[in-house]
Amino acid sequence: MDLELTKEQAMFRDMAKEFAQREILPTTRERDREAKFFPEIVKKTGQQGLSGVMVPKEYGGLGLDWLTVGLIAEQICYFDFAVGITLFGQTSLQAMPILSAGDEAQKKKYLPPLARGEIVGCFAAVEPNAGSDATAIETTAVLDGDSWVLNGNKTWITNATVADFALVLAQTDRSKGTKGITTFLVDRGTPGFSHTKIEHKLGVRSNDIGQLFFRDCRIPRTNQLGPVGRGMGIALGSIEHTRFGIAWAAVGLMQACIDASVKYCQERIQFGKPIASFQLVQERIAEMVVDCEASRWLAYRVAYLKDKGLSYSRETAIAKLHNVEAAAKAAKAAVELHGAYGFSDDFPVERHYRDVIAPLIFGGTSHVQKLIIGRLTLGIDAIAR
Questions:
Q1: Where are the alpha helices (H) located in the chain, listed in sequence order?
Q2: Please, what sign has the CA dihedral across residues 230, 233, 236, 239?
Q3: What's the mean pLDDT in 193-217?
Q4: Domain boundary residue, one of 120, 137, 162
């Protein structure tokens, strides 16, 4: 495993950092306070080439590698976790499903504007009664001539009210269980397709998250993404890519917590000296640094496996579990090190503490990651199917 970045990878890492400092950081607190989405940032990432890193050149992207995508996610999430997660979703939950299962017409329609940051999509799998158990999906799709007719509800969908299109998982044959699930592309404005925003979230407040509703929503048969019954495979692949991004995002958030805490502890004077000189403070900082370095190398390992075309499911689950739990621990420590000031959004650690709760849930909870690791290690599935 080569641990040295190429000139191109280092360039994109530095470009992402400079972009985030210039275009994202100045309005981060405002967006968080106002729960304000950021279409202008999405467009600018496209103009910078940061949105289409994994999109092949023939579809308007750069056709680069997963390590580059991870490095970009880390840098952006250092400054704003909510923005970074949404931007990574453009790759993992929107571009990659279309790349892996779409026909040529679908690729040409959606991938170039995604790469340019001109449109955003959403991935609609979760339902009121189907979360970790995606097999419980109740949304249905019935073939009627040359059209599919969708009925059902989706919830906790990122980009729900701002998306130009949705990738929707629906049951086409309930008797076949997971093999009856199919994925569809539903464009904004399609009759019978509506949405509403979920307000007052604990964290990632500038992310647009909401509910989708399908009421006799008729779409052309050509909007079917991949073969009938292959929707669960498409979803699982996309979710694994998302877990990879979350692992990198957690590294960015951890590093931000470390840097903010180091600065504060060096400047904060108590008992006549900087609190950075206190042994227990140094212990907390040391623990954060060790966890962050371990997390960074776990993320690098998954990127290496993905870029080499090797198996990465187990390693992705390990990285997602470890890195998010470590980030939550680091954010808590950062707030405590800031004392009362950590309770105010005048310092970024307060936002980090709230934001890090989200990835403990989405992309597969920590408990789900443990079950995946257990199954792939022991060869026995703990979930009855």
A1: 7-19, 28-34, 39-48, 66-79, 81-89, 96-101, 104-115, 231-267, 279-308, 313-337, 349-355, 366-378
A2: negative
A3: 97
A4: 120
Angle, vertex CA 130, rays to CA 129 and CA 131, nearest 5: 120
Place of tokens 């954010």: 331
The conformation of residue 264, written as its DSSP 8-state character, comes to H
pLDDT of residue 385: 59
Q: What does the DSSP assignment read for 85-134?
A: HHHHHIIIIIIHHHHHH--HHHHHHHHHHHHTTS--EEEE--BTTBSS-G
Crossing angle of helices 7-19 and 39-48, rounded to 10°: 150
Which token pair is 203? 């964290």
> Does residue 384 lie in a domain region?
no
Q: Which domain holds residue 302?
A: 233-378
Of residues 112, 108, 92, 94, the one with CA closest to residue 46: 112
**What are the φ/ψ torsions at residue 351 (nearest 5 degrees)?**
-70, -40
Residues 6+ away with beta carbon under 8 Å from 7: none
pLDDT tens for each residue of 258-270: 999 999 999 999 9
pLDDT tens-digit map of 303-333: 999 999 999 999 999 999 999 999 999 999 9
Distance CA 179, CA 48 (A): 40
Of residues 54, 94, 97, the one with CA closest to residue 234: 97
Residues 55 and 153 in one domain: no
Condensed to tens digits (0 to 9), the pLDDT of residues 52-80 reads 999 999 999 999 999 999 999 999 999 99
Q: Give the separation between CA 55 and CA 115, rounded to whole angstroms.
A: 7
pTM above 0.90, yes or no: yes
At 131-187, the pLDDT tens digits run 878 778 999 999 999 999 999 999 999 999 999 999 999 999 988 888 999 999 999
> Residue 166 maps to which CATH number?
2.40.110.10
